[in-house]
Amino acid sequence: MASTILIVDDEHGLCQMMAQMLTEAGFEARSAGSGREALADIQANPPDLVLLDANMPELDGFEVAALLKSDPTTATIPIIMVSANEGRGARLIGLESGAEDYLAKPVDPAELLAKIRNLLLLRQRTLHVAMH
Question: pLDDT at position 18, please?
């Protein structure tokens, strides 16, 4: 069964492009256009990984990551934060808010896919160990 990736970005075109790339790589991709939409989507149907834009109006990626990591039902979902802001400060805030990784836009597709596969594999191993 294909792993599900939730893409959270207020730029609709970018969501479509990333969804196509992920689908071609064998993942199931869906998207949310805002932090609030993402939280509702994740509560209804938790994905295997979240690609989260840091800079969104209303509820930004840092807040969404912190909310997901503070909830025991969603805390184990890996988050890759993606942002046009590649400064050290933003990266640190992203990682401190709970994201497992942080990538600057424009994202290198090969690097993104490698990071997604690594985080999903790590999550599988962690969940497998927790069950035994």
Answer: 94
